Every structure is written in structure tokens, then in C-alpha cells.
Fold this protein.
Amino acid sequence: MNTRNFIITAALVLPLGLTAQERWTARTGTVTFNSTTPLENIDAKNTKASSVFDATTNDFVFVVLIRSFEFEKALMQEHFNENYMESTKFPKATFKGKVSGLKAGALSAAGTYNVTVTGEMTMHGVTKTITTTGVFTVDAAGKVSASCDFLVKPEDYEIKIPGMVKDNIAKDINVHVRMEYVRS
Amino acid sequence: MKRKTVLLLVVVALGLAGGTYGVREYFRGPEDKSSETAVATLTAEQLALEFMNDEASATAKYVGKVVQVTGTVERIEGKDVFLRTNAADNVVRCTFISKPAIKAEDIVAIKGDCGGAIVMIGAEVQLSQCAVVE
């Protein structure tokens, strides 16, 4: 390759390298939620959330299927799906947003990185803006995980709780999200 | 007097039966879908493709219903059995109540409650409360 061709090739290829996506994906993310009242504690877990995090643009998305939440008691699971979340009509909950506070290339070095996550959460057919804090962790082996916690008010998502059980379900539900990413 | 006693006994018996049923129902754990009739029987490949090609239509057809899926076990992770499809990123993930007695490369038929699919990194169809169909 002569000098001229080298310069032309470099001019074409280098920008591609500079804008190459650093994309991380997860298919075994965990989403748990907990409702605590003096009358009853309700816990549910879903270990099948999918997520994509683009470390170049800091775009972050996670999706979870409502019917994949598991409860200890079958009756709670049935009520959750049929009466509250109407999971055949609204089968998913999604979050699409941006992570801020994570420096470029941070995920290449072991450490704990505090971030802010802001985005749109869609659930039960209603979309609301959520801002919360989260943590990215890179362990010594280079494994990347991320977690965040936030509160959800059922009424914000038009989830109707019948008067008879309104004292059994908390006004604010604690949601915890944890993803273990692989680079893709 | 005798009539009143009988009536009282009937009321107590009904109360006890109702109470027992209520307590049992409240503490009932999740059960698999082995005893339910599937609305459709199809291969893992077909099910994943239906969601990949027209998610809204597949959601209306299958979500919240029991489906029976046949396929080859790609891998097992705890209570989750992954059925292989021809597209590397498409998979049917079947969650059991407890780890089933099957292994990778077995050809199986599985019945479960269809929760839909996450169409993001390919299509991952998720079935829960699964049972192996003998």
C-alpha cells in the first residue's frame, strides 16, 4: 500500500473505529419488587429481564415480561396478572433512558461507578419519567453488572387496587433491578 | 331444640369448610400446567418466529394461554430450560416449578403459560409453570 492509499484507508477506517459501539447486553436480569404493609408483605421476582446498555451513547433499556414474575403464593400471582397488571393486555414493562455520570471507557477498569439513570418507564399502558441513582460494578475479572432501585406508585400507572385489599398493598412499591452484562 | 342444634352444627361445619378452603387457597403455591389443555401445539422454531415476525398478533394468540412446544434442549440453567431454534438469537425459555429431569440435547414437548416474548436481542419467548409432556 502506497502512502496515498494508506492515508485514504486510514481516513475511512479511523472514524469507524472512533464511533464503534460499546454495547453490553443482559438476558438474565433480575427485577424484584416488594410491598410492605402491617397486614401483609408481598415479594415477587423475575430473573428473565433483558437489557441493552450502549456505553458509547449511554442509552439504557430493559424489558421484563409481567407474567414471568414469580410469587410464593399462587393466588397473589393470579391477582397480580389478572386484576392489577392485566398482563394479557399489557404483557411487558419497559424502561428506556440514559445513564449519566459514567466516564467513557470506565467499564474497562475494575471499580464501582455511581450513576444517575433517567428515562421513561412504561407499564400497564402508562408511561412515566423516572430518575434514580444506580451503580455499575466491574469486578477484577472484568464482569460488568449494574443495579438500581426506585419506587413505583400503583396509582401512577392506573393500577386499580380494590378497597377491600387497599391496606394490604403499599402505596409505594420498592423495585430493585440488577443486570449482569456481557459485551456484544 | 334438636332442630336448633342441627342447624348450629351445619353452620359450624360450613364455617369450618369455608375457613379451611380459604386458608388452603391463600397458602396455595404455584402449580404447573400439566393438567391444562394447550390452545396450540407448535415447535419452538415456529413459536419464536411468530413473535419475531408479528409480535402483536402472537401476543393476542398466545399470551396468558397454555401452549405446548416441542424442540431440542439447548441448555438448562436452574429451573429454566432453553429450547433451540434455527436462529441463534431466538429461543424459547421454559421455567419449571422445580428443576426437571431432562438434559441438554433431549427432544422434548413442554406445556407452559405463555408470557409473551422479549424481542430485543432476537426473540426470547418465555413460558412459565412448565411441565414436560410424557
Remarks:
- Residues 124 and 158 of chain A are 7 Å apart (CA to CA).
- Residues 9-18 of chain A have pLDDT under 50 and may be disordered.
- The longest helix of chain A spans residues 3-18.
- Chain A has two helices and nine strands.
